Amino acid sequence: MLGWVIACHDDKAQCILEQLEKRFGHIPQCRVVNYWKGIGTNMLSRMMCDALHHADSGDGVIFLTDCNGGAPYRVAALMSHKHNNCEVISGVSLNLLSELYPLRFCLSSRAFRHTIVERGGEGVSSLWHQQQKNPPFVLLHHA
Predict the structure, then answer these.
(1) Are strands 125-126 and 86-90 parallel, antiparallel or unpaired?
(2) CB-CB contact of 5 with 92 (8 Å)
(3) Which ranges carry the PTS EIIA type-4 domain (predicted)?
């Protein structure tokens, strides 16, 4: 099963988890990180690292963030490069996560990434999709 780390500004992540639990009951391997104004990058990194390790059972973890480029997204992007089967999604909503909740039990992290971006519409993206739009700079050597 894919672990979920819901990381959003203010208390949005906690609100999403509470609503998901009302609908589905206890959500296993799911942690929230509420990013409040004034929390430093180091503290946010520690909170997200702790959440990642608690949510991961070895099948992969999906970071679900509220906005592309926000602090939770940036920290998740840095962390995802150090862990296998780790994906970063931006633009999530309660409705989208409710719809895709059952898929975390049967999809790989890559398949889940593609599915959530496809079903999420224009406001939903992933780190992988963003990287495809802006490939890394490559220096060409002329001999």
Answers:
(1) antiparallel
(2) no
(3) 1-124
In 3D space, the residue among 84, 68, 56 whose CA is nearest the CA of residue 7 turns out to be: 68
Q: How many domains does the chain fold into?
A: 1
CA 132, CA 37: separation in Å to the nearest integer? 31
Question: Which pTM value belongs to this model?
Answer: 0.90
Cα–Cα distance for residue pair 106/38, rounded to 1 Å: 38
> Which residues are designated catalytic?
9
What are 5-63's pLDDT values in tens digits?
999 999 999 999 999 999 999 999 999 999 998 999 999 999 999 999 999 999 999 99
24/8 Cα distance (integer angstroms)? 21
Segment holding 12, helix H or strand E: helix 12-24
Tokens at 44, concatenated: 């946010």
CATH code, domain carrying 83:
3.40.50.510
Is residue 67 included in any domain, yes or no? yes
Gap between the Cα atoms of 44 and 33, Å rounded: 8
